[in-house]
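Task card 7
Instruction: Convert sequence to structure tokens.
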Amino acid sequence: AWFAVAGAPAARAVAGALVGILGGRILPLREGEGVGRTYHAAAALLAGGTVALFAAAEEVLAATLADPSLARPALLALLASAVAPLAAEGPAGALTGPTARGSLEVVRGHLASLFAADPDAARLYALLARRMVALAESRGSIDAGRRAALERLLELG
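Output:
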């Protein structure tokens, strides 16, 4: 487990010793106002956000299946398959899917389907896709023109 450590040098040393006893790893925080809250927000965004995103995808997928109970194991397998490339290549390298390829028509179809099924899921998709667009451009799988076209499509005003 990782343990965020901040504070005065003496406090950091004590915290480091405790982390060592627990067999953990230290995640040293920078000094500054609000750094601890921002660290915690990032952790909550990933941990709780992943759960909330999974729940949204599970609900949408279950509504499309003849056997809705298969949604969870199918999505768990998909989620697990995303972790190894993420660890090996980082976010930009691990990104897959129509947004990463700049497939405007597929993304447009996804948005239409999601808006019909669950408008909140559609808005979540669009918000996350905007981050995917930036990752795709940073790795060179889409150019600035395709990025602009995708961003226009993803504006839900």
